[in-house]
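Feature request disguised as a bug report, sorry. It would help if multi-protein outputs had a clear separator. Right now it looks like this:
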Amino acid sequence: MSESKSWIDVLKAEFGPQLQSLTVRHDEVTVEVLPGDWIVVAQGLRDHPALAFDMLIDLCGVDYLEYGRSEWSTDSASAQGFSRGVSPATSGRFTFDEAPDLHDRAGPRFAVVMHLLSVVHNRRLRVRAWLPDDEFPEIESVTGVWAGANWFEREAFDLFGILFTGHPDLRRILTDYGFVGHPFRKDFPLIGHVEMRYDPEQQRVVYQPVTIEPRVLVPKVIRDDHRYATGEKAEEEKDA
């Protein structure tokens, strides 16, 4: 415990004003920084001898557009049962034109998250930055700090449309050439926009508007039970 506390104290002392928050949950440490401090903090986390986070394990984008919104409440039961949950209520179930307006959430929509590892000290750290512009999410590239961020950032750009300034080769990495949109955004239709098939007459693969009808078989449910209980609530359920 003392060792864990000491390196967390180093985090606070080294980056105090730059840390928007620092939380420790389930023995996992998460810090949040502003996009403008992204590179400075990244370099400090790598170069400070007491921290030495020399390995970037993962970097990804997150879309919080519908975070905390459920399609089916589990507070009570009814005779209709599952049929209540097959009426879609989140935007990914629809085409863009039919999607309900869910852009009224408080705070930024997009975030970038890094997972770091210190091989020397055998410690892990999660770093998150919220991107203030929902229409043009942008942050500096950390490829100059960890070269392994290259493909991770390309993936976040491809799937979420997050721009990484200073990236040496920011282009799509998973979707096809000419793909329109970013498929991991919550308002991107689950069925997509286009489908492709082999045309025997043209003897090539052709693209056409998607013909799949959207079907909701598994509603989005946010459960509240013992698996997610914490603090006093967890102790009460444990004693019970």
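(second protein starts here, but nothing in the output says so)
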Amino acid sequence: MSVSGESVEIANVKSSSEIRIGRYGVDIENFENFAIKVLQDAVSSKKIIVIDEIGFMQMLSVSFQKIVQDIVADHRIVLGTIPSDSHPEIDKIKYLKEVKIIGLNEFNRDKISGFLVKDILKALDSSIL
């Protein structure tokens, strides 16, 4: 779902898609038509880009992988979710030098928003952006 409320279904247990993850059929073309446009629009007009999620299904799209890597490498502020489990394409994003990963758990989940706000404000004030 985009911030403006638009959404598209990318996976469904009833899907006849040839690409399957577990029991889900994944519609990569539908995902790319939606997600790439939303991200391109965000890059042209936003300083902070929220991506929920940078996950296993999304990594089936080479176009999505590339645009996320480009956005991060361009020193954009990306607030996103990404699996902690290793995956070759996800790891390429996680280990970009511009990425800061903050693990979320039951002990820090109530305090993390304060830390994120401070980090984001600091990044917005820097000359990088």
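Even a blank line would do. Unrelated, but nice: Helices lie at 28-45, 62-73, 88-94, 112-125.
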